[in-house]
Structures are given as C-alpha cells and as structure tokens.
Amino acid sequence: MDAAAFLGLEPTDDPTRFRLPVTNGICTGGMFLFGGAGLAAGVVALEKASGRPMVWATAQYLSFARPPAVLDIAVNLAVSGNQITQGRVVMSDNGQEIITVNAALGSRPMDLGGQWAEMPDVPAPEDCRDREFRNDPSATIQSRIEERVAIGRSPREMDGTPGDGRAALWARMPELLEMSPAALAVLGDFVPFGVSQSTGRMAGGNSLDNTIRIANLVPTEWVLLDIRIHAIANGFAHGLVHLWAQDGTLLATASQSVKIRMWR
Predict the structure, then answer these.
(1) Cα end-to-end distance, the chain, whole Å
(2) Taking a C-beta distance cutoff of 8 angstroms, is the pair 261, 205 a contact?
(3) Cα separation of 83 and 104, whole Å?
(4) pLDDT tens-digit map of 197-219
(5) Residue among 172, 178, 181, 184 at smallest CA distance from 219
(6) pLDDT in tens, 94-112
(7) CA distances in angstroms from 85 to 61, 112, 179, 203, listed in the order given
(8) What is the reported pTM?
(9) C-beta contacts of 84-90 below 8 A and 24+ residues apart
C-alpha cells in the first residue's frame, strides 16, 4: 500500500480537502494521533493538491486528536511558481485546530549535488535486537513499525547514567511498498526515543513540532534512524534524526522539540 492507504487518508470532492479518521493504527500508546502520522497526512494532502513532490515540511502540534475523531484537512496553496509551490495545511476536529503544516514542494533538476553527512557504523538490522517497550504496543502505530536497536539501552538498563546524546534504531513499515516523503515523515518522529537514552532515566515526551527535509529517495527495506539529542533544558529536549537507507544514502533529516515526560 502507499502512504495514503497506510494512514487511512480519504479524499473528498474538493481536491484541496481531505479527511483523516483517527484510528488505533495511527495512534500512540497514549491513544492519541502519532505526530509523525499527522505530519505525513499533511504531506500527502499537499503533494496531491499541488501535484509536486515535497522538499520540506514542518508541523506544529497544537492539541491531541483521539479515536474516533475524524480530522478535516484543508490545503491552501499560497504560492505556485514555475518550479516551487509553497502551501499550508490546517487539520481540525469540529473546528478546533489540531495540527498545522507548512511546506515547500517542487523539483529543480541540476547536475549539482553531493552528500557530506556520514552514516554511523552500526550492526545490520538482522544483527540487532528488537526494541523493548515499556507498555504493550499492540493496537497502536508501533505494532505497524518494526524497530531494532542499533545503538541504545533497554528500559531495564536505565540506571540514571547519562549517555552521549546518540541513539539509533533500524525501522521498517512492512505494509508500505515504497519509500516516500510521507513515510519518512512518520519515521522522523523519533527524537523522544533519544531522551531516555541521553539521560539514562525513564523519560520520553510529546512533540511540539516536527520538521522533515527530503534529500534523496532510494529504495530501501530498512531505514536507520540516527538520533542525536542536542540539549535538554527547562523541561524541553531538542534534537535531530538523520534517516539513512541501508546503502548509506541520506534519505532525509528531521528535527524536533519535545516536552519531556517522566515515565513510571
């Protein structure tokens, strides 16, 4: 299936309006819409409305959406040039804004390019252990994402000893048949995983925002989520995720600020 089917995004008679039923399969363990899924829905809506591929998109998370809500997604293509469209999305539940997304879309073919970021040297997915969860991940989006720990500690190993700010997960979504900006938007929402790894304490958080920037899309079964926590201060964590294909191609980067929550 494609990303729209994975999310359950529904078109309407208006090409700039969509509907997103909030189901368990796109929710967190707290049973509210997973932020990456919300950003991904905005990306799909913008790409379909503009007919152009996404370059970057940023989401601001304003409120929670819980099942059985159905979000109204309204696309506004503010500027459409010869090569670039800039637009925004407002997702609302009965008039209450839940998520806003701003984005640029387009393509500019050039014989200029390169990659300077370096993929970390980690074991292959088949040589890594499955991620352990503090709660049962079934009937949530986590049950649809296979995750293996390349760099990181298990919840049982959180003894308060700080880490170095780095963590890494291999991830794949078996239901998706193609790599796309929307798929990467889902996988980019993993800065919260790095909070506990960096502090050595049982902590995570709720995303305040999420920005995804697309580099090169290549086929890959697994994506390495190279997570880097830059700083934690005043109850918030700030970090970055590099998303790597198995062949070392940088697919995208994602950045977030997270409201920290301590887990029991």
Answers:
(1) 37
(2) yes
(3) 10
(4) 999 999 999 999 999 999 999 99
(5) 178
(6) 999 999 999 999 999 889 9
(7) 23, 21, 22, 39
(8) 0.95
(9) 84/52, 84/55, 84/108, 85/50, 85/52, 87/46, 87/49, 87/50, 89/42, 89/45, 89/46
DSSP codes, 57-120? EEEEE-S---TT-EEEEEEEEEEE-SSEEEEEEEEEETTEEEEEEEEEEE----S---------
Concatenate the DSSP letters of all residues of 110-157 into one string: -S-------------GGGSEEPP-SS--TTSGGGGSEEEEEE---GGG
Asked if residue 198 lies in contact with residue 168, where contact means CB atoms within 8 angstroms, the answer is no
Structure tokens at 133: 């969860």
- Structure token digits, residue 174: 């078996």
Look at residue 37 and give its three-state secondary structure: helix
Residue position matching structure tokens 């980690």: 122
Say if CB 71 and CB 20 are below 8 A apart. yes
- Residue at token pair 């977030």: 256
Backbone angles phi, psi at 186, to 5 degrees: -65, -45
Q: Which residue has the tokens 């059985």?
A: 68
